Amino acid sequence: MWESFDPIKMLGGLGMFLFGIYIMEDAMRKLSGGSLRKYIRKYTTGTFRSIFAGFISTVALQSSSALSLIVLAFTGAGVIKMQQAIGLILGANIGSTTTGWIVAGLGFNFNVENFALPLIGIGGLFSVLFSEKDRLSKYFNVLCALGLLFFGLGLMKSSVAEFSNNISLVDMPNYGILFYFAVGLLATAIMQASSATVALTLTALNAGLLSFNDAAAMVIGADLGTTVTILIGSIGGGFLKKRVALAQVGFNIITGLGALVFMPLLISLLALFIKPDQHPIVALVIFHSVFNVIGVLLFIPFLGNFTNFLEFMIKDKKSNAAKFINADAAKMIDSALIAMKKEIVHLYRHVLHHNLRVMEIEPAKIIENNDFSKYDKIQSLTKDYESIKLLQSEVLTFAAAILMKELSKNELSQLDRLQHGLRLMVHSAKSIKDIRHNLLEFESEDNVFVNGQYHHFKERISELYSVLAIILANGEYKKGDSTIILQLLEKVKNDDKLFLDQTLEAINNKEIKDLAVSNIILANRAFVQSNRQLILALKELVLNPLEYEKLKLEKQEFIELEDR
After folding, report:
1. What is the CATH number of the domain that holds 485?
2. Is residue 324 part of a domain?
3. By Cβ atoms counted within 10 A, which residue in 54, 55, 134, 201 is the most buried?
4. Which helix (H) or strand (E) holds 222?
5. What are 415-456's pLDDT values in tens digits?
6. Do 397 and 442 fall into the same domain?
7. CB 65 within 8 A of CB 29
8. Domain span at residue 106?
9. Co-location of 304 and 340 in the same domain
10. Within this chain, do residues 201 and 228 fall inside the same structural domain, yes or no?
11. C-alpha angle 544/484/548, rounded to 5°?
């Protein structure tokens, strides 16, 4: 009896099936990666939208693992919140059942060799003929992957075809559904692909080697086995990555065990619409989809509570200064750049707060709708500046990791602007910090002119920072911001000229002494430099570079850009 079973053909078919899935996943990720990630960012504003986005994304990528990577990166970058990430994962669980539909719909209803070999031939040939960078080559990769997938499935079917003719289910030992549940779990954990386990299960069911109940238990186990992949991926990751992993593990355990307990009831309900003994393949795929959908629907009302539970179980224990950048955010270029920009905006607010403290101005009175409680806890201005330098170091380290990846010209330009803005704002903090002692002297100075200029410094910085904070609060580029930036630079220049004229007049009128002249002119120079650096840093963060450069050429007399 066992002589009719061909293990080499089974192993070869399984390997070909897995390789086909790998090629398809890679090609689909490259074809839809950018647009798909934009879709995820845009359509995850609510629970149901997040679930639907997770479903569509998994169908497009043909891989829940690939979507998990995107979810991990976007959650780490602060692009999506934890509850949205869980919604995407729930949708991915439903989307992962579509591979079974493809296999059941085509792989068992046709002679796979009639269309698998042409797909492999055409897809493989044109994949080689077209350049790897050509988008068409990715489409032919998908064709080739489909051919490999179905040809591998055909080999698995034929490897047990004769074997199944010589054996009856009544002759098979009754190991029970828990055994087959464990087999499905272990097989998926080993192969790192639930779709391969489902394909094997469908093959065995089609050959009559498994009863429907045993096959149903195996696909339940396969769903639970997918958690091993994300658990391995979360090792060494940040707290957000661990929360996302725990979310998938928790959902799959609850859904899987629930499906196992209520499996007789679910199969009985299924039998009202389709007879498992007459259409076992389709019935099993429907069963697989239905228990995932039911699990998601039952989970939705408790999504908020589940999110709170995850946050309670896995807390943020990081000791670094960064809020948005981490190893998870660096997984993909677009999420990495988003995280880096958010971190630099976070640092910009810190610099505003620091500089206002140096000038002895209450930050909350100048900048509305900002939580400065974190910075207010830093009593020493020296430590405050050190924390700015620490965060700069972390951002630059993160930028270096991004540079190790393959970047487009536009991505390199964006990264350059962000780093330039980072340097400018930190220099601004240093410039204002270095004249702190001068400012304290001016405040207590008996000289009317010097003391008056000190208060004028405070007026100038308060007026400027209130406008900068408004532009920063917008988050994204708004038409007219370029003009405002140029006007601010012009005003800083005019204020500097007015100060110098007033100082020259005070010298001529003997209102200021020689040493005081030197001190206040040097202090004003650093003050002006600090203000200009913050304006130009904001320009790098929020402005449209092309529009700004066009306006700059029209108003060149107002601008003296710092060399890069």
Report:
1. 1.20.58
2. no
3. 54
4. helix 212-234
5. 999 999 999 999 999 999 999 888 888 888 788 888 888 889
6. yes
7. no
8. 2-313
9. no
10. yes
11. 30
